[in-house]
TrEMBL record:
GO terms for cellular component: cytosol; protein-DNA complex. SUPFAM superfamilies: C-terminal effector domain of the bipartite response regulators, CheY-like. GO terms for biological process: regulation of DNA-templated transcription. Transmembrane segments: none annotated. Residues 126-220 form the OmpR/PhoB-type domain. Keywords: DNA-binding, Phosphoprotein, Transcription, Transcription regulation, Two-component regulatory system. The keyword Lipid biosynthesis does not apply. This is Stage 0 sporulation protein A homolog. Signal peptide: none annotated. One of its GO terms (molecular function) is phosphorelay response regulator activity. Residues 2-118 form the Response regulatory domain. The modification 4-aspartylphosphate is found at D51.
Amino acid sequence: MLIYIVEDDPSIRELESYALEKSGYIVKSFEETTDFYDSMKVRTPDLILLDIMLPGDDGLTVLRNMRNEPAFSKIPIILVSAKTTELDRVKGLDLGADDYICKPFSVMEMVSRVKARLRSIPVNSQTVLCFEEIRLSDDTRTVTAGGSTVELTYKEYELLKMFLSSPKIVLRRDDILDRIWGHDSTGRTLDVHIRTLRGKLDEYGKYIKTVRNVGYKLDKDD
């Protein structure tokens, strides 16, 4: 699952990112709202961890914008703030926040609240993921590229689904291996599957980019 963190304090942002990535989530963080809004147009996350005190639009403004936009209105949003009065919490919740965490906070509690909120998300029985000419329909477990059906093995399918769920985001090799194969895997296993998947996607396999010494990402641009 993909989580967006919007936090201008680098130490807190790094702490939140590290804890959530260690818990198995894909994380993308932002120190201000411009890049966050741009990323929302590319890929909507499964949850947003949102600081209130931000440069530019503050967190409550971002929250209001999200709840007023039909495409984003159902995304779970957890506010994080040093404002700890009951009035502050009530204001955030009234604007549509799903939870409110006060700074300083326990990292374990933060991760626990994120997990609890994600467990409450209804499972979509007809998930369709698309990127350019690649289309994956999870209800029928079918994949097409340029309109042609692509036959994939179970692992290839799960690998492509992971890329399509987080386009333009760099996925680290260890995270991919843990998510798809568990601990019983090697880097060689991933490299072979990437090469095979690219081949099966034919001309669209070029969208799977190698990020040297880090991992891979699904992106149209070089």
